[in-house]
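Q: For a teaching session next week I want to show students how multiple molecules come together into a single three-dimensional assembly. I've collected the sequence lines for a complex. Could you give me the predicted structure tokens for the whole thing so I can convert them for display?
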Amino acid sequence: MHPHIERYIYAVTKRLPQAQREEVANDLRANIADMIGDTPKTDAEILETLRNLGHPRVLANNYRGKERTVVAPEYYDDYLNVLKVVATIVVVVNVVTGIISILTTSLPTDFVVLLETIFENVFGSIWESLLMAFAWTTIGFWIAGAVGSKQHRDEWKISDLPELPHPNSVKISRVGVAFELIFGVSFGIIGLILINNGIPYLKADVVQPFIPFVMIAIGLDVVVGLIKLAYGTWNAPVSIATFFHHLYETVLGVYFLRSDFLDPSLYQLIADHSEFSVMEVQNGFSTAITVLIWLMIIGNSIEVITAISKAIKVTFNKN
Amino acid sequence: MIDETLVSNLVSELRRGTQILAVLAQLSTGKYGYALLQDLADQGAPIEAGTLYPLLRRLETQGILSSTWDTQESRPRKYYTLSPQGKELYTRLIAEWTTLRTTLDRILSEEPYAPTH
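A: Of course. Below is the structure for the complete assembly, covering every listed component.
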């Protein structure tokens, strides 16, 4: 038998289960011999005959007879959606932990080395984590497909179907949520670290009791972000979560700003280096704080009103 | 202009369902793979070698065809023929095909673009 033929047959049978290999090889050998005929043939003619049989991979697939996929085709859409959400979470967690690790380590003074450190910390582990997340999601779906029987997969109830999206529904941008999370959580944690280490001219005994409340705020940030990712559009639960999130942040902010957190020595310091009196500096600060409080209340109110109006549009505008 | 790939995809899809019927029809007497390939091509129902050989093997594992190796000739050949179960299947498929053809003929003759006979 011509070596080309044996190599072709091997290329087909090595893709098949052990038990079928010998029989398929015999079948193929006989069939190819018939196709080639009795008269001696050149290498090129033999190659042409083998080409007629198609790619060994395709032929092996035909012999195997059934499609094999890691993720069952009927799960594929869900698989892609889960991958997107998981990838978003992985990127957010990595960037946040990267930023924190930069801020908690002493930074090199050389600019290029500094950039390198930042890049390494923020992006270094993203690729690896994404691969891990991808692998685990795939394994999860593979198990679901292998374990869930065909019959079980085909059964469904009305309650399994998603609610009809309202025509006016507003999508929540996944990238937007990712940025919100990255900034919210990073700033929260930076704040925590600063408070914990002590900030000059802030009264430690006034500021430090806020630490648990800031932790709760970060937790809320994460929870609300996850709720937004899960629903993907503005609806009642998302709006209610957003409302409480902003309410909590406003109350916490107002409490903080109204607490007597500034060390009086700051007023003295500024007065010493300017032409204002201590009294004037103190008044200036208290005006600034009042303005800040109002800005915060107005800003958060706008956010809450937008959130609620988006949900109302969806809930009550049933046309 | 209609996309030619689309046409050929649909045509081969249409043929695929009937291929098995053509193969079974040829196998009331024993035949080896390559002879069957040529017979089908001669009768205007060509089938790819890479499709036919695996199909024969699958039909055999499903018990529809039975096979014997003929080692008398200069080279060994595997002869396929309909098993009793395969004969029953063939009869059922013929009945199904007849119904299908009648139905489709009727539907297509009512269709405004039907070719005039």
